[in-house]
Amino acid sequence: MKFPASVLASVFLFVAETTAALSLSSTYRSGGDRMWQALTLLFSLLPCALVQLTLFFVHRDLSRDRPLVLLLHLLQLGPLFRCFEVFCIYFQSGNNEEPYVSITKKRQMPKNGLSEEIEKEVGQAEGKLITHRSAFSRASVIQAFLGSAPQLTLQLYISVMQQDVTVGRSLLMTISLLSIVYGALRCNILAIKIKYDEYEVKVKPLAYVCIFLWRSFEIATRVVVLVLFTSVLKTWVVVIILINFFSFFLYPWILFWCSGSPFPENIEKALSRVGTTIVLCFLTLLYTGINMFCWSAVQLKIDSPDLISKSHNWYQLLVYYMIRFIENAILLLLWYLFKTDIYMYVCAPLLVLQLLIGYCTAILFMLVFYQFFHPCKKLFSSSVSEGFQRWLRCFCWACRQQKPCEPIGKEDLQSSRDRDETPSSSKTSPEPGQFLNAEDLCSA
């Protein structure tokens, strides 16, 4: 049975960030910064409440009549109790004999073109641990993108405007960044396990390292770009946020309405139509919060029973990173044009170049992950390198087609006249089947 390290990491980040935020808010209060104190508490306590609801909802404690657990969740101590419960189950699992064992069937990754199906016995203790890991993974994603991401942006903005980084603020920013990266990592692992549910997925340590570097560069550069733009154009940042928010929030619903599918009723039997709508709106809000800072790795599909699209769409991935790179470049350009005196001692061109290179580095680590370290790369129809080679061939063919014709000189005119004077019988006209199509040119 696997050691519940993911549960321990989630609880540690949750407690550390909440403690650091409460301590920093008291510092703001003593300094008279009421607005910074209110925003710091908001971005700390709101995700705490959402995490409690998530853990309570996943374990279905309302139907199990557990008033003590409900009280602990109301006191914001639910994650600590759940972590204690997880380790009690883990350490007692080897002492008691399992009275009931379920059998799961998973397929191995193909080896030499063959894939075997393996049966595995799952006891009650291991099943409970799997449920706890799943609940804490979802809670980590909620904590990261509905709490840590706004918190990091706020504290970095305060540091830029005050031109000072205190110990408490730097500690909170560090913990918030780790929480966001960890949440994005859990989101990647969840996406892989959902899309390849019938396979036994094993993620190697190097894959975790690659995802960590990919998400670290992507999220850090995105937050810095937003803070720089906000510091010089405070009004226009509201427009940017609203455009991003409504674009990602309405996109799944537009696809759902265009599909003509009936309203989903099988999310939870105990939920009414209003409750189902609230849950779907919350999931869409979480999906929007993730995509505002990084690639979500999962595509919300409301008309699907799993609410998640299991198909990996490379086209959406490419479009997202192209649009995000262009948006970051435009925001940095506007910051460079309207920067104020607080950036007097900052080399603006070098900073812009570093941020753009940092975002490209994130994309590079993403490509490395999908090329070498993805646990299900054997199931891909084509690898990243093969797709890049095909794109390069087509690009070279397009450049050849657009190459301008050379100017015709006197010798060319004279040779054309000589050809016109030759008998028509000597002229050869190409047959229709002798022309190369675009695919042949691309493969040449």
Layout: helices, strands, pairs:
Elements: H1 5-31, H2 34-58, H3 67-74, H4 78-92, E1 101-107, E2 117-123, H5 124-162, H6 167-195, H7 205-232, H8 234-259, H9 273-293, H10 314-338, H11 348-373, H12 384-401, H13 410-421, H14 438-443
Q: Could you characterize what this model shows?
A:
- This protein is mostly helical.
- It has a domain at 1-103 and 119-201.
- Helices cover 69% and strands 3% of the residues.
- The chain has 14 helices and two strands.
- It has helices at residues 5-31, 34-58, 67-74, 78-92, 124-162, 167-195, 205-232, 234-259, 273-293, 314-338, 348-373, 384-401, 410-421, 438-443; strands at residues 101-107, 117-123.
- It has a two-stranded antiparallel ribbon with strand order 1-2.
- Helix 1 runs antiparallel to helix 2 (34-58).
- The longest helix is centred in the N-terminal third of the chain and has 39 residues, at 124-162.
Give a short synopsis of this structure.
This protein is mostly helical and 444 residues long. It has helices spanning 5-31, 34-58, 67-74, 78-92, 124-162, 167-195, 205-232, 234-259, 273-293, 314-338, 348-373, 384-401, 410-421, 438-443, and strands spanning 101-107, 117-123.
